Structures are given as structure tokens and as C-alpha cells.
């Protein structure tokens, strides 16, 4: 088995030397255990935020889709696939009732109706449920309202924007390249796109939303968020999903300062962690599956080949190389 352990606590943007590839011999299976072989690994922004809590010389945290290749458990038979927070490793000895990590659980892959199993890490998994519950429960978008999504071409953002379209909203996506913008407007049905790297977000937003913004699904925080908040309508709703613009900062963090607009427009801002809806997990997966089957929800994956390349996949994702969900194929 191979695994990446955290070799040192990274400062700022992660470096390859922060991780070490280690080989290890796994113990034989005990009763009620099984051996899971990684097939796809997920690289997600939260991993960067979580790194300070990973102990040195322990496996880097992360979820994966794995195949059960040996088993002494009746509940987890050989040949089935599991989704589990096993970390950056190729093989894992898993007890029948574990592991659970920061709210993420291990379970047999649900029936994805013939769709690729890798989607359990994206549109039919945690990012998909983040978009669905975050947008619908916190923003409660209504037909005709204007919804802005930042981090719009990523796994969560591209999904949230499409749900807002399904709900009949005018959708404006903000992301970091024109190629991403083309995908959002030409294939996913976003109404407007703003490239925050080359355009003036404030001016472009004024043009795209002369009527003001009702809902904001925020994946990035920082200056973009301040700019959007300043153009929100009274009683606007903001789902604070992530704040990736500050994840690699050494601090002080570039956070949005609560300002007078928030008060005067009586905005509602709410942070959330998707595991809040663990009790409705399969409902979210089923809804997203149905939208895909109805042709209402599209997805893209950016796949990096090879377990050894997971660090590159991780930093590529942090730098915005990915369109849609970033994953690693072992
Ligand atoms: P993405 O697929 O969106 O990948 C990250 C993207 O962030 C990059 O592609 C890049 O796109 C963008 N980005 C990177 N740096 C910056 C920056 N400084 N400013 C603006 N954009 C930047 O990842 P996910 O869809 O998995 O996650 C999106 C967000 O959702 C993250 O903030 C994450 O933490 C959050 N999240 C929250 C959860 C929750 O429970 N609350 C659960 C899952 C995710 P670009 O080219 O546009 O810069």
C-alpha cells in the first residue's frame, strides 16, 4: 500500500515537500474488516483548510471511491464499491462500522443508475449535496430572482448555478477564465459570466444585474464577496459555502467586513457545512441523479491520472486549472 503523509505543516500555498509518499505493509484482515483499493480520489478545497489539523506523519485527509478486493465482512462483499474518508492512500483496511471523519461517513456506493462511479465524489456526492442544500435551504431562490454564484465553474458552483436555473432564476457566474465562462453560458445555461481576473467585477455586475442581486451563493469570500454584497437587494439571502480566496493566506485573512449595506438591505448571511444535512443525504443524491437523467443538470470532471500525481491535482485545483470536479484516477 502507498500513502501520502503530511511531512510538515505548510505555510501559504502547499509545496510538494509538505508531503511524503510512504509504502507500508498492511496487516491481515480481522473479522468484520475488508480491504478497499482506491479507484478514484477526490481533491477538494476544504483539504487545504483542514491541513493544520492533520498530525505530522499521518495520512493526508480525503475521500475516495474504492473497490472491495478482500473481505471478512458480510455487509461489505468483494467486488462492491465504497465511498469513504480513507485519505490519500491506495489501500485501506476498513472496519465494518468505520471510519467517520469530520462528518463524512463510509458507505456502499448507492446505485448510480449506470452513471460513472467517480460521480460519487462530485455531482452525485458531497459537492453535489453542498450545492443543492446550500442553495435551496439557505438562499431559497424564487423564479425571476437574480442569483450570483462565485467559484462558478467548479464542482459546487457549476452545480449551484444550474439548480438556480432549474428554479427559474437569472444566473450570473463569476470565475477565473473565459474558457470556463464559455462552458457556463453556452453549455450550462448561465445568463451572464464575469471573469474576475480580467474584468471589473463591480462594473460587470452592474450591467448583468441592473435590477440588483437577490441571492448570492458564495464559494470564494474576500473582495469578490464584498463587491457582490454591495449590489444586493433588500432581504437578499447569502449562502456562505466557502472562502477559497483566503485558504492559502498566512493571515491576516482577507475576510469580508460586515458593512452598512448588509444592515440597510437587511441581508441574511449564513455559513454552513454540508454534513448538516447528513440525515437527508440520499434525498439530495436522488434529486441530483434525477436532474441529470432529465438533462437539466450537466457536469464535468477534470481527471488527473495516477495516485502519485495527487499533489499536482490538489494544487492545480487550488489554482483553478480544473473545470468542474477535480479527481484523481488511480
Ligand atoms: P472547485 O471545483 O470550485 O475548485 C476550486 C476553484 O476555486 C478553482 O477552480 C478556482 O477557480 C477557484 N479559486 C481558487 N482561488 C481563488 C481565489 N483566490 N478567488 C476566487 N476563486 C478562486 O472546488 P469545490 O467546488 O469543491 O469547492 C468550492 C467551494 O465550496 C470551496 O470554497 C469549498 O471550500 C466550498 N465547499 C464547502 C462545503 C461546505 O460544506 N460548506 C463543502 C464542499 C465545498 P477560478 O478559475 O474561478 O479561480
Automatic annotation (TrEMBL):
Gene3D superfamilies: Medium-chain alcohol dehydrogenases, catalytic domain, NAD(P)-binding Rossmann-like Domain. The keyword Ribosomal protein does not apply. The keyword Transmembrane does not apply. One of its GO terms (molecular function) is 15-oxoprostaglandin 13-reductase [NAD(P)+] activity. It is found in: Cytoplasm. It catalyses: pentan-2-one + NADP(+) = (E)-pent-3-en-2-one + NADPH + H(+); 4-hydroxynonanal + NADP(+) = (E)-4-hydroxynon-2-enal + NADPH + H(+); 20-hydroxy-leukotriene B4 + NADP(+) = 12-oxo-20-hydroxy-leukotriene B4 + NADPH + H(+); 6-trans-leukotriene B4 + NADP(+) = 12-oxo-(5S)-hydroxy-(6E,8E,10E,14Z)-eicosatetraenoate + NADPH + H(+). GO terms for biological process: prostaglandin metabolic process. GO terms for cellular component: cytoplasm. Its EC number is 1.3.1.48, 1.3.1.74. Signal peptide: none annotated. InterPro entries: ADH-like_C, ADH_N_2, ER, GroES-like_sf, MDR_fam, NAD(P)-bd_dom_sf, PTGR1. Its main location: cytoplasm. Residues 12-328 form the Enoyl reductase (ER) domain. Pfam families: ADH_N_2, ADH_zinc_N. Keywords: Acetylation, Cytoplasm, Fatty acid metabolism, Hydroxylation, Lipid metabolism, NADP, Oxidoreductase, Phosphoprotein, Prostaglandin metabolism. Monomer or homodimer. Belongs to the NADP-dependent oxidoreductase L4BD family. This is Prostaglandin reductase 1. It comes from Dendroctonus ponderosae (Mountain pine beetle).
Amino acid at each position: 500500500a502507498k500513502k501520502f503523509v503530511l511531512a510538515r505543516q505548510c505555510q501559504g500555498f502547499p509545496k510538494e515537500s509538505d508531503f511524503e509518499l510512504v509504502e507500508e505493509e498492511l496487516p491481515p484482515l480481522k473479522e468484520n474488516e475488508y480491504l478497499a483499493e482506491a479507484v478514484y480520489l477526490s481533491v477538494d478545497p476544504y483539504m487545504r483548510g483542514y491541513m493544520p489539523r492533520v498530525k505530522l506523519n499521518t495520512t493526508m485527509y480525503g475521500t475516495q471511491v474504492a473497490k472491495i478486493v478482500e473481505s471478512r465482512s458480510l455487509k461489505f462483499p468483494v467486488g462492491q464499491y465504497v465511498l469513504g474518508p480513507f485519505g490519500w492512500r491506495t489501500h485501506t483496511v476498513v472496519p465494518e462500522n468505520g471510519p467517520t471523519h469530520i462528518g463524512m461517513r463510509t458507505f456502499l456506493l448507492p446505485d448510480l443508475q449506470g452513471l460513472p462511479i467517480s460521480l460519487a465524489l462530485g455531482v452525485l456526492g458531497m459537492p453535489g449535496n453542498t450545492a443543492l442544500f446550500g442553495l435551496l435551504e439557505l438562499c431559497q431562490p424564487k423564479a425571476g430572482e437574480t442569483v450570483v454564484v462565485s467559484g462558478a465553474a467548479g464542482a459546487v458552483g457549476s452545480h449551484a448555478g444550474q439548480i438556480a436555473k432549474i428554479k427559474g432564476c437569472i444566473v450570473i457566474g463569476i470565475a477565473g477564465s473565459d474558457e470556463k465562462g464559455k462552458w457556463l453560458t453556452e453549455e450550462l445555461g448561465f445568463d451572464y459570466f464575469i471573469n474576475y481576473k480580467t474584468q471589473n467585477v463591480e462594473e460587470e455586475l452592474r450591467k448583468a444585474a441592473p435590477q440588483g442581486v437577490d441571492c448570492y451563493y458564495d464559494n470564494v469570500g474576500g473582495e469578490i464577496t464584498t463587491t457582490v454584497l454591495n449590489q444586493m437587494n433588500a432581504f437578499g439571502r447569502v449562502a456562505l459555502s466557502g472562502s477559497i480566496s483566503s485558504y492559502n493566506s498566512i493571515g491576516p485573512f482577507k475576510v469580508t467586513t460586515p458593512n452598512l449595506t448588509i444592515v440597510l438591505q437587511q441581508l441574511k448571511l449564513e455559513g454552513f457545512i454540508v454534513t448538516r444535512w447528513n440525515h437527508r443525504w440520499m434525498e439530495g443524491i436522488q434529486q441530483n441523479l434525477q436532474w441529470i437523467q432529465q438533462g437539466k443538470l450537466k457536469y464535468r470532471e477534470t481527471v488527473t491520472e495516477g495516485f502519485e500525481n495527487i499533489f499536482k491535482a490538489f494544487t492545480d485545483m487550488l489554482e483553478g486549472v480544473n473545470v468542474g470536479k477535480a479527481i484523481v484516477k488511480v
